[in-house]
Amino acid sequence: MDHLACFTPADLPSTNPAALLDGYRWHLLAQGDSWFSTAAARLGAHANLLQELVFKQRAMAINCAGQGEALSHMVDLESAPDFVRLLTGQDAPVWDGLLLSVGGNDLIEAARTPAHTPGQDPTPAGLIPLHLRLLRHQTEWGAPSQGVARYFSEPGWQTYADYLRTNIRHLLSLRDQGPSAGKPVFMHCYAVPMPRPAASEGSGPWLYPTLKAYNVPSADWAAVSRLMVMHLAQLLKSLAADQENFPGLHVFDSTAVPLALAAPGSTGISGDWHNEIHLNHSGSFKISRAWSEHIERVLSGEPAVPAPAPKLRGRGR
Description:
CATH architecture: 3-Layer(aba) Sandwich
Distance between the termini: 17 Å
Strand content: 5-15%
Largest sheet: 6 strands, parallel
Helix content: 25-40%
Number of strands: 8
Radius of gyration: 20 Å
CATH topology: Rossmann fold
Order of helices and strands: EEEHEEHEHHEHHEH
Low-confidence stretches: 306-317
Number of domains: 1
């Protein structure tokens, strides 16, 4: 098994870009949010999923995710000219597949939308409309019999789901405008983070202050986090099942990979997590090794059955 060879757009020779692809069976183009980030601090934490992908046949990827460590909108393609050029440009290579990390950071950012616009009326009359946020103000909570769903804004979720659905469809249309038309697009779901005061250098925490601001009881924080991540997983899997409107989309259910949860209240590395929303080496290893099998089965034309969770050995110890 060989690790995925990861390069950036800057590594492509200007005179003969295809030369970098020689010697590899699979050629992949990657774009995504902070789970694909090439920032030095992220790689030092072994938290880039691409670095832990392994294949039976040699594979390489051009990773356009960039150096950013902060939350990023993967679907903001105006800030991703290299990805668009390498996908649709006149001299773009034919990629065997695309690797996308989509929706996780957008979900976190949507959850962070406050109940009130800063500086505006803090009374219930001054609330931001429910369809523009994922959490409900305390005055809007449902009955306790609803469980943690009482805190969740279904109208806000529909807004987010429509946004993500539209942008994924746009990404697939870009694929079909270039020489890689019809090639498989691989996406992953996300793991369920524990809301806790664990920041990265210069940013975060993310969910922890949000749930505090919304006065959600701390005993329910983990379940609220799970509710949101599972909503996203179900959305992504439903898109992959709709091959008429999302042709060639393949989604790996990362929520099915057992991970060690971070300890509530912990402020640093805990379990399989580097900080509140990013995996550490062991977490990346577990998800990436399972995702690798899913990807290679599709590339090889085999049925993409769910891969079992890998045992920790070798680089995963």
